[in-house]
Amino acid sequence: MTFDRRIKIAPSILSADFANFGQECRAVEDQGADWIHVDVMDGHFVPNLTFGPAMCKAIRPHVRGVMDVHLMIAPVDAYIDAFAEAGSDIITAHVEAGPHIHRTLQAIRGTGAKAGLALNPGTPAEAARLLLDDVDLVCVMTVNPGFGGQKFIRSQVEKVRELRAMIGDRPVHIEIDGGVDPATAPLVAAAGADVLVAGSAVFRGGSVSNSAPYGENIRAIREAAEAALR
Ligand code: DX5
Ligand code: ZN
After folding, report:
1. pLDDT for res 15
2. Is there a binding annotation on residue 147?
3. Does the structure show a pLDDT above 90 at 1?
4. How many domains does the chain have?
5. At 68, which CATH number?
6. CA 19 – ligand 2 centroid, Å
7. What is the span of the domain harbouring residue 32?
8. Averaged pLDDT, 54-69
């Protein structure tokens, strides 16, 4: 994985057909997705349940590019090796998931995976300041984690701006997760985000047997974000 700040679109398979993950991953990549975002939920840290390392391992052969695994689980540390062995390129943990986030980030990097730090909407940018040399990505949640299809929380745009200034020249991505569509993407791109996760706004209108809408949706988000940078 080489570092760059170009806009990357990361479809969240939370909005894909759960009976068809392998084909869905191939379909969105064929239609222009940069990364595949995998939302792991435990029914405890967030009020929803999705899937675990076995599912990540099963889809890995169907993902050509980056598999970006977002852990909405607590505790985290006991599961890091399993997600790394499943082939995750990036493993993101929440700062709110426990008292020892620094140890968690070290453990993630220790597996050889890239380490991400996610911040809930109620957590200020300041929570990331002392961790910026220990992460490869900061994920700004622009909805409360747990479900796809929620409304983008605008107060987070200023947080993105603060994080971008804090990060400076470090090779750290800023990822936006929740409510990203062609209307909200320009706000966060202009504030300094480079990875845009989108679930409902990518998968709406399409299917594995009719994947052209995925491409149109991805292009619309990318073009809106890039236009804000010109
Ligand atoms: C929310 C997840 C997101 C979600 C985004 O807990 O982390 O990745 O799938 O879905 P949309 O784009 O529909 O808001
Ligand atoms: Zn996510």
Report:
1. 98
2. yes
3. no
4. 1
5. 3.20.20.70
6. 19
7. 8-227
8. 98
